[in-house]
Design brief:
The protein is built from 25 helices and twelve strands. With about 525 residues, the chain is an alpha/beta fold. It folds into five domains: about 30 residues, no CATH class; about 130 residues, DNA primase, catalytic core, N-terminal domain (DNA primase DNAg catalytic core, N-terminal domain); about 120 residues, Dna Topoisomerase Vi A Subunit, Chain: A, domain 2, CATH 3.40.1360; about 70 residues; about 130 residues, DNAb Helicase, Chain A. Strand 8, helix 9 and strand 9 form a beta-alpha-beta unit. Helix 19 packs across helix 24. The longest helix is centred in the N-terminal third of the chain and has 29 residues. The radius of gyration is 30 Å and the shape is globular.
Length: about 525
């Protein structure tokens, strides 16, 4: 059940457990927290409450007579009442400190209000946002973590975002992701601004998101990777948008995401495009989106005069240098052929250039030039690591086995960093007299770590073995882990006395005998 929710909602293990618990009204047991962690959790809860009330305040103001200016702007931009409600858009009033007094009346003190970033304290206390259409920024659980505001009129800055807080980190937040993640579309569309995202959602493209007043970061890419492996860039078609796309593409590639670029010319952005040509035309542009690498090469080409031999050669050299960045031979060859076809370059000449750049940088092995590149063998898990995993599963399954194994093996004997960390947590729980699998599993944030650690707790031991066979397997695993630990310690032992002790322990390895 939990795995289903994780995959369907794209949640982490802990997020899935919390969501299910909230759904059935179940109070989850509190994990052990330090006083600082408890204080931080309480502050975050208060900030979420403040932001929620502020969002409601802005929304109601937009719907009132005082919000006419904001509502007229949104209607002029073609937004429906339904989309205004879906994104919780609002208006911040003409200035003063009305929101501040409203929140004070709700019982919030200045310490938490100051940390919310909704107010300025330079010359008296005033609302930070005024005369702006307000865009609540929500996390994936639809909780308001910050705000963006678009000024009505010509004042600067045109767009103003909340400052970063304990809740709001611009480099790891995407506007619209709370809706887009549930769209079940194969790719996310990344735009530049709030209105582009809203216009796309209104046109039926609920997979659209935008970064928040900052260039795309590695944090954004990792967040996106939780929900999809494919990205469509819908940045502005002007020079600034092109530069933003060129910065984003290598970040997305580094994160293992496949990216394509939507051509919106002759229009500037998705909002303008859809208003002019409609949703069907935008879908056609999406279907014809250009591979991000070929897009990069087309932008590079604009720097050179292909009619001039010298300039054309410089373009081809720069292109070859980028092609040499593909470490996998088949991928490199596919892109080389595609580039040569599109930009009318000699494939033989490009092969030679790419080989030269690749060998100089150590990216391409010499065998690859003559077509004799050997396929890499899949890395097998070492016998020691397998033994470490077996030991952990055995101890998790049986407290008595833990008592016997811990006489020989301690967490520091585990060579694999992840398994050593699990062992450290498990041993600590055994000493406290309470083993909590969830308490260990949910300390690991990445999907890969979570899956591997969860597998240790859910693995089934081979009950088909006889008692003597199980004993022999357990003793072999203990001896293998301890032997490896002692060998590693010997490599780094600088003291003769320490070396003698380690050698003595090695001699005693044959005396290990655990009965079960």
């Amino acid at each position: 059940m939990i795995t289903f929710v994780m995959e369907y909602e794209k949640y982490t293990f802990l997020e899935a457990v919390k969501a299910l618990a909230e759904r059935v009204g179940m109070q989850l047991p509190e994990t052990d927290r330090t006083q600082q962690e408890r204080q931080d959790r309480d502050i975050k809860a208060k900030l979420l409450s403040v932001n929620k009330l502020a969002a409601i305040y802005y929304f109601r103001l937009l719907k009132s007579a005082q919000g006419t200016l904001g509502m007229d702007y949104l209607k002029k931009r073609g937004l429906s009442d339904e989309i205004i409600l879906r994104f919780g858009l609002g208006y911040s009033g003409q200035g003063g400190s009305d929101l501040y007094h409203y929140l004070k009346d709700q019982g919030y003190d200045d310490e938490i209000l100051k940390e919310s970033g909704l107010f300025t304290y330079e010359r008296g206390i005033r609302d930070k946002f005024w005369n702006r259409v307000m865009f609540p920024i929500m996390d994936i659980n639809n909780k308001v973590i910050g705000f963006g505001g678009r000024v009505m009129g010509d004042a600067k800055p045109k767009y103003l975002n909340s400052k970063e807080t304990r809740l709001f980190d611009k480099s790891r937040s995407l506007y619209g992701l709370n809706v887009a993640r549930a769209s079940r579309k194969p790719a996310l569309i990344i735009c530049e601004g709030y209105m582009d995202v809203i216009a796309l959602h209104q046109a039926g493209f609920a997979e659209a998101v935008a970064s928040l007043g900052t260039a795309l970061t590695a944090g954004h890419a990792q967040l996106i990777k939780r929900y999809t492996s494919q990205v469509l860039l819908a940045y502005d078609s002007d020079e600034a948008g092109t530069k933003a796309a060129m910065r984003a593409i290598p970040i997305l590639k580094e994160a293992g995401l496949s990216a394509k670029v939507i051509d919106m010319q002759p229009y500037k952005d998705p909002d303008e495009f859809i208003k002019a040509l409609g949703a069907e035309a935008f879908q056609e542009r999406m279907d014809k989106a250009e591979n991000s690498f070929l897009y990069e090469i087309s932008i590079i080409e604009k720097k050179y005069d292909r009619a001039d031999p010298e300039s054309s050669t410089m373009f081809e050299r720069e292109t070859a240098e980028k092609l040499a960045g593909f470490t996998e031979r088949l991928e490199r060859e596919n892109y080389l052929q595609a580039v040569c076809r599109k930009f009318q370059i000699s494939a033989d000449g490009m092969h030679e250039l790419v080989a030269n750049y690749g060998t100089k940088k150590g990216i391409i092995q010499k065998q690859a030039i003559s077509g004799q590149e050997k396929p890499l063998k899949k890395k097998r898990e070492s016998g020691v690591r397998q033994a470490e995993k077996i030991l952990l599963t055995w101890m998790i399954d049986d407290h008595v086995i833990y008592e016997k194994v811990q006489a020989y093996i301690q967490p520091e004997d585990f060579s694999d960093p992840l398994l050593r960390d699990v062992a450290d947590k498990l041993y600590a729980q055994f000493k406290q007299g309470r083993v909590s699998p969830a308490g260990i599993i949910n300390t690991y944030g990445t999907e890969e770590q979570h899956s591997e650690v969860a597998a240790l707790f859910s693995a089934e031991l081979d009950e088909g073995l006889s008692r003597s066979e199980r004993e022999r397997a357990l003793n072999d695993a203990v001896a293998k882990v301890k032997k490896n630990s002692l060998e590693e310690a010997l490599k780094h032992a600088g003291d003769a006395h320490v070396m003698q002790e380690l050698l003595a322990k090695q001699i005693k390895l044959g005396q290990i005998h655990i009965t079960i």
